[in-house]
Structures are given as structure tokens and as C-alpha cells.
Amino acid sequence: MTSELERTDVVIVGAGFTGLSAALEMKQAGVGFLLLEARDRVGGRVEARHNGLGERIDSGGQFLCQDMPEVMALAKARGKTFVETYVEGDFITHPSMPARDAKQTYHGAMAIRERMNGIEPDDPSIEGMSVAAWLERQHDPIDAKRAFRSMIEGLWCLAMDKVPLWHLIDNDRRITNEVPELQYSLRETMQSLAEDLAGDLGDLVRLGEAVMRVEHGPQGVRVVTGNSVIEARQVLVALPPATAVKLDFAPALPARLARALGVWESGAVIKVLVRYPRPFWREQGLSGMVMWRDLPGLFACDASKDAKHAALVVFIGGPLALRWRALDAAALRAEVTSRLQAALGPDAGDAIDFSSRDWIEDRWSGGAYSDLIVDATAKDAERTILAGAPSVHFAASELSPSFPGYVEGAIVAGRIAARKIVLQLQSPIATSASGS
Question: Are residues 322 and 388 in the same domain?
């Protein structure tokens, strides 16, 4: 049963960092809005949960670095404590190889990535080519190519044969950090930052409000949830493309726009935090960073908040995540533990807590850090989505001009979309049409 009709200027769908950033921008501009979130929390792909020890841990997006100015500025302004990721000591590649060879392999993989990014996305010689097909043509050592594959499938969480080469180049060029993206995490969790932003919005954020239908036309929109009906002048859909396409639009979106939303696929990732009584790897002169050459998409690094809270975070991405999600909790723990022991020694079996979060097919945000275009012909998809339709706008980290797929990108995308909407609402034509 729906409540009485409400009215506002803008309805924002989705309270991840995109929606939160857009809402704060609109609040500053004096524009009326409501921010609707299907989950019982804000943050989207950023999330915190309690592990078996009662500690609040990042089970979603976590890391940031000094080359991400917007999220860094927000975290500093909110008084967050930066925990620098421990990187002293040796980086392990498994199966093991001599340190010199490991270094050479890493640099070889990075050289492949740089060569890839030197290609223009619209170069006719790569028309219709997948990342996998392009890699097959490269004449690099096999170990470097395997390391490159592990890097790509770990970061973008999709099989390389699904991803068009032009799209990965275009995407990767926007990720411009020169320091490691794992430089910092927040002691209070990244989720706490999302909660701080939501706190500034008060009751303009509504949790547990899943949008069922968006009715739209030149005169405005009507957004229907299970609890309410809201009329507005504009709607901003601040959801990843593969989630946004599942919304019920009435009438149906223009065919070109619907197709542009439909060419994206969510990757697959399982995130694991393994807590230990002490950071044993540091005692062995190791950084805790491990890349498995025989299991593309598997990666671990030190995620200790301090020496008393020793932890490794393990990312399982891409096709490997799809295989391992079939395991029950005990089998997944055994699989991950055995891999850590093989790489770091028997002490890796002495965990005091093992917490995993399977993001695959997450109902409200898809399965990984980001959606990717999987149709090689869809070169206009981003532009088409950003153009939207009358009264209907879209924003997502995936569509950001900087750091797509990251919290940084979400913040930038939300602010850009909000400024565009504010300008439209404040234009003489829009003001006249609304009778203001």
C-alpha cells in the first residue's frame, strides 16, 4: 500500500558514493531532492561488516591513495585515520621463482599494460578485438603474459576474452595514479565515510526504499517504490549500468539508450579478510603481497590496521571467483588457507578469523568493483547513457572521466551529474515551464 503523493525537485536512486555526492552537491545548490536506497545502509559497493572477532571490517571497497584527490579530501575533512598499507619486504609470486625473475616478470607485465595503453581506442587494427586476442599476438615471455592476465582479471574481474580491447584501454587510461592504489585504507572503514556523508543529508536519505518503477516524460517523473510515490522534475539514476538497466521505466527508454545500458556486465569478486595473531610474514622479510601465476585473479596483501590487528586481504576475481563460489564456507576457507600456506609458509594456517564476502550477482550493485562493456561495437554506450532522456539522468563510477570503478570515480561522477541537473533546473526555460 503506497502512501500519499510527495513532491520534490529531484529523486536520486541509489546511495552509493555517486548518489551521496550528487545529493550533497544539490543540497549546497539549494535544490530539493530525496535520495532513495534499496539497501538498509548507504555505501553501495562500499560496505563494512563485523567479523567473528567483533571487529568492523571493510567487506567492500576499501583502498585509496594520494593520487585520488576527491576521496582523500573527504576522508581528511571527516577526520579519518589513514592506515598505510605495509609494503616492506619481498613480494611473492607463486609458484615461486627467484626474486630477480619475479621482478622481471612484474616489470614485463607492466610493460605489456603500457604498450596496450599506447594504442588509440579507435585504432581500426583492433576493431572487434578482445583483450585476450590481443595478448595472444604479443611476443612477450609466457610468465609476463600470465602475470598480465592475472593483473587484468584481478582488477577488472572479467575473463579477458569478454572485454573489448578498446574499452579496457579507454578505461585504464582514466586510472591515473602513480603511487599504488593500495596505499591507504581507513581505520574507521571506508563505510564510515559514506555514513558521515549520509549524516549530513538527514531524513532526505531513505533506506529500504527500492524503486519499482520510474514513470517519465518531458514534464517530469513519477518514482514508485514499495512505500511511496514521488513526483519530481528530474530523476538521477545513480546505479551501475548493469543494475540500472533492470529498473522498470515507463514508457520504455529510447531504444538507443536501453541498448547502451544493456551492453555492460558485472565482474565477479569474492573478498576475504584473514586475521592472524601476529603479522608472521613480516618476520620472514615478506610484504604479505602475493600474486598467484597459476590462478589468474588471485591476489593477497597486508591489511593489518596495526601490528596487534594482523590481517591479509585476499581478492578472488574473475573466472576464478565464479569457480570458487560453488564451494561452501568450509571448503572456501580450506582452499584459500592452503594457497596462503603454500606461498607464505605454515603460519598462514593459524588464522583466528576468516571472513568472506561474495559480491557475485549482488542484487543491488552487481558482482565486482565495476561493470564493463562486453559488446565490442558499443563505442557510444557511455556518451549515450550520460546524455540520458528528458527528465532522466544517469551517473555511475563506470561513467566517470577519472578513476572509473573506484570510489574516487563515483564521487566525481555524482558531482558532475548533479551540477548538470542543477543548471537545467535553474535555466530560465526550466523555471518558466515549472511555473516558478
Answer: no
Q: Flag whether 71 is in a domain.
A: no
Give dist(CA 365, CA 333) in Å, integer: 25
Both 15 and 161 in one domain: the answer is no
Instruction: Assign residue 213 the CATH number of its domain.
Output: 3.50.50.60
How many helices (DSSP H) and strands (DSSP E) are in the chain?
15, 20
Binding residues for FAD: 18, 37-38, 211, 398
Contact between 20 and 197 (Cβ < 8 Å): yes
Same domain, 404 and 349: no
Query: Where in the sequence is the domain holding 349, given as residue range(s)?
Result: 88-179+268-358
Binding site members for substrate? 315
Cα–Cα distance measured from residue 224 to residue 271, given in angstroms and rounded to the nearest whole number = 34
Long-range own/partner contacts, residues 298-307 (CB < 8 A, 24 or more apart)? 298/150, 298/154, 298/339, 299/150, 299/154, 300/340, 300/343, 301/85, 301/182, 302/85, 302/86, 302/87, 303/62, 303/85, 303/185, 303/273, 304/86, 304/279, 305/83, 305/187, 306/83, 307/278, 307/279
Domain identity same for 130 and 21: no
Statement to judge: residues 273 and 260 lie in one domain = no
Annotated binding site: 18, 37-38, 211, 315, 398
Strands (E), 166-240: 184-186, 205-207, 211-217, 220-225, 229-237
Q: pLDDT tens, 289-306?
A: 999 989 999 999 999 999
pTM above 0.85, yes or no: yes
Max CA separation in the chain (angstroms): 73
Span 262-279, mean pLDDT? 98
91-131 per-position pLDDT tens digit: 898 998 887 888 899 899 999 999 999 999 999 999 999 99
Do 175 and 272 reside in the same domain of the chain?
Answer: yes
**407 part of a folded domain:** yes
* Count of the separate structural domains present in the chain: 2
**Helix (H/G/I), strand (E/B), else coil: 222:** strand
pLDDT tens column, 53-80: 999 999 999 999 999 999 999 999 999 9
Give yes or no: residues 334 and 192 share one domain: no
Same domain, 166 and 210: no
Distance in angstroms (rounded) separating the CA atoms of residues 130 and 133: 5
